[in-house]
């Protein structure tokens, strides 16, 4: 049995902890904040509940398999409902409600563009193949060496996975209607790069969206994190909250101890699931750093976010649980984020109103709004600017909804770059880690195992396979497996 320290209680850290504790190891998680969940924390204010980060529950199979592996089901911890419609997209000239049923999705496609349903069927069939191969063979590899992919099945698959084509080129070849193009392009925005820079492999996200569906754990996304926390406790994991790790001690080629707010702690292995850049440049001694400043500066970051949590003392008809405001020019906003790195003039934004389907998250007759506007990572913020954007966003919502509600806002909190840095030690205030571009995929991501220090590992959204709840959870599992291999070698 080994002792294992883990930095961070986000989904990647808790997934790694559960795997390792379940195989008999002593695991302790150090978390700087007062509760679990990392970017998936929740908060309560003035009778409203808000999920502070993730709001889309996609790929339910991935979470279910995780809990099944540990003798549980997600239904032991929460009730999961499929949303129908999955979401509403507002355009300048109309809207689309994304139905849960494939037949109904196809009907919307045909209505907007004759012949497009046939393209969609073929596109999703290929996307299903990519999802199945991608999620079983590709993302689960530790990605420490190209040799891992020298397996005929994966090699031949890689060609079919279309790594070298962009998803935009595939969508644009098959679809002319601008609204349908936006609908099909939206899921890859989760991956943090423009569709023109995202490999066609990631149409697997369209399969996740349209075939596997959008789900909601009653009570909020916080139920998912609570489930991880409870399962971790059941397996014997110890948590130290408000116990920020300040430095990592190395002797020769070995990790020896960490120093946290509560003192010095020795472990056989360490996993850092805190933002990789923070561990590499702040926690590790200079001689153990793996990546230079130039390396970090040259990384393409996924967007940051300007977020508003609003309480509204009235109902807001016309909004669903998930709402995408694509009533502005997508290319212009994308260029502001990825090419020009400046505040957008006319942004797209997303509104989650979980009170539309869940009475428990707002007082009766009220709504809880989570509004997210993607921005370039690292932008300087100021209060006046944030207020201007809030004004612009509310104005656009009022125009699309056809009524005013700004006078009914009775709670407002913003969360932006500086908050991501102070709350999570986020590099450049990023919300979603590194962009999933071809040159930042698999072995080209920051390594999950330290190059020289044999008992030091990493997990989380800045490492392989990348951002999003399912990938971050999988990164924790990958790292746990590497440690299990080490411990089984030494016990032989
Ligand atoms: C606004 C937003 C919306 C999102 N929406 C979705 C969505 O709808 N669906 C989806 O699947 N994904 C979504 N994501 C992405 C998803 O939330 C993340 O990819 C995932 O939660 C990352 O988990 P993690 O474990 O890698 O990191 P984190 O959750 O950031 O966990 C790292 C933890 O390390 C702690 N830490 C840092 N430094 C130290 C230190 N020195 N000592 C101790 N602890 C430390 C931090 O406090 C944090 O708790 C969203 C993310 C954001 C920010």
List the helices and strands and how they pair.
Elements: E1 3-7, H1 11-22, E2 26-30, E3 42-45, E4 48-51, H2 60-69, E5 80-82, E6 87-91, E7 94-98, H3 102-112, H4 116-138, H5 152-160, H6 167-174, H7 178-185, H8 204-212, E8 215-217, H9 222-234, E9 238-240, E10 245-251, E11 254-260, E12 263-266, E13 269-272, H10 276-283, H11 293-298, E14 304-312, E15 322-325, H12 330-338, E16 349-352, E17 367-375, H13 383-401, E18 409-415, H14 417-424, E19 456-458, H15 469-491
Parallel strand pairs: 1-2, 1-13, 2-9, 6-15, 13-19
Antiparallel strand pairs: 3-4, 5-8, 6-7, 10-11, 11-12, 14-17, 14-18, 15-16, 16-17
Flavin-adenine dinucleotide binds next to helix 1, strand 14 and helix 15.
Fill in the keyword field for this structure.
alpha/beta, 5-stranded parallel beta sheet, 492 residues
Bound molecules: flavin-adenine dinucleotide
Mean pLDDT: 93
User: Termini distance?
Assistant: 12 Å
Bulk shape: globular
Tell me how many strands there are: 19
In spatial order, strands of the major sheet run 7-6-15-16-17-14-18
What's the story with the biggest beta sheet?
7 strands, mixed
Summarize the amount of helix as a percent range: 25-40%
CATH fold-level label of the domain at 3-39 and 219-299 and 437-491: FAD/NAD(P)-binding domain
Radius of gyration: 22 Å
In CATH, what is the class of the domain at 3-39 and 219-299 and 437-491? Alpha Beta
What oligomeric state best describes the polypeptide chains here?
single chain
Low-confidence stretches: none
Alpha-beta content class:
alpha/beta
Number of helices: 15
How much β-strand is present in the residues? 15-25%
CATH second-level architecture of the domain at 3-39 and 219-299 and 437-491: 3-Layer(bba) Sandwich
**For this structure, what is the CATH homologous superfamily of the domain at 3-39 and 219-299 and 437-491?**
FAD/NAD(P)-binding domain
């Amino acid at each position: 049995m080994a002792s294992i320290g883990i930095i961070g209680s986000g989904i990647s850290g808790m997934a790694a902890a559960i795997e390792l504790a379940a195989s008999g190891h002593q695991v302790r998680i150090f978390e700087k904040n007062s509760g679990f969940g990392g970017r998936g924390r929740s908060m309560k204010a003035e009778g409203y509940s808000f999920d502070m980060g993730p709001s889309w529950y996609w790929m339910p199979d991935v979470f279910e398999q995780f809990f099944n592996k540990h003798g549980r089901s997600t239904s032991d911890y929460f009730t999961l409902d499929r949303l129908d419609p999955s979401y509403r997209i507002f355009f300048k000239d109309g809207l689309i409600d994304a139905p849960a049923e494939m037949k109904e999705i196809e009907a919307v496609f045909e209505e907007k563009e004759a012949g497009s349903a046939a393209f969609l069927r073929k596109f999703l069939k290929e996307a299903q193949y990519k999802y199945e191969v991608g999620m079983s063979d590709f993302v689960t590899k530790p990605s420490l060496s190209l040799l891992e992919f020298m397996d005929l099945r994966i090699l031949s698959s890689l060609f079919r996975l279309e790594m070298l084509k962009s998803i935009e080129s595939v969508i644009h070849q098959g679809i002319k209607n601008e609204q349908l193009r936006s609908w099909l392009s939206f899921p890859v925005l989760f991956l943090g790069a423009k569709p023109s820079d995202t490999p066609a492999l990631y149409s697997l996200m369209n399969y996740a969206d349209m075939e596997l569906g959008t789900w909601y754990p009653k009570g909020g996304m916080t139920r998912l994190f609570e489930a991880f926390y409870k399962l971790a406790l059941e397996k014997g994991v110890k948590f130290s909250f408000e116990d920020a790790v300040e430095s990592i001690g190395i002797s020769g080629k070995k990790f020896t101890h960490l120093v946290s707010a509560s003192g010095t702690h020795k472990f056989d292995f360490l996993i850092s699931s805190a933002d990789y850049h923070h561990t590499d440049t702040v926690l590790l001694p200079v001689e153990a750093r793996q990546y230079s400043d130039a390396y970090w500066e040259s990384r393409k970051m996924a967007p940051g976010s300007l977020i508003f949590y609003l309480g509204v003392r009235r109902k807001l008809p016309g909004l669903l649980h998930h709402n995408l405001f694509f009533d502005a020019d997508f290319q212009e906003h994308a260029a502001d984020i990825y090419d020009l790195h400046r505040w957008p003039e006319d942004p797209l934004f997303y509104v989650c109103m979980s009170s539309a389907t869940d009475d428990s998250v707002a007082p009766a007759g009220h709504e809880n709004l989570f509004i997210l506007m993607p921005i370039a990572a690292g932008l300087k913020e100021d209060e006046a600017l944030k207020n201007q954007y809030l004004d612009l966003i509310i104005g656009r919502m009022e125009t699309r909804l056809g009524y005013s509600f700004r006078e009914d806002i009775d709670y407002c909190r913003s969360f932006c770059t500086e908050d991501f840095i102070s709350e999570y030690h986020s590099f450049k205030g990023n919300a979603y880690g590194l962009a999933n571009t071809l040159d930042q995929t698999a072995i080209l991501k920051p390594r999950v195992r330290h190059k020289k220090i044999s008992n030091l590992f990493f997990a989380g959204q800045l490492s392989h396979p990348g951002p999003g709840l399912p990938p971050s959870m999988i990164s924790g599992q990958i790292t746990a497996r590497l440690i299990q291999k080490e411990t089984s070698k030494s016990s032989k």
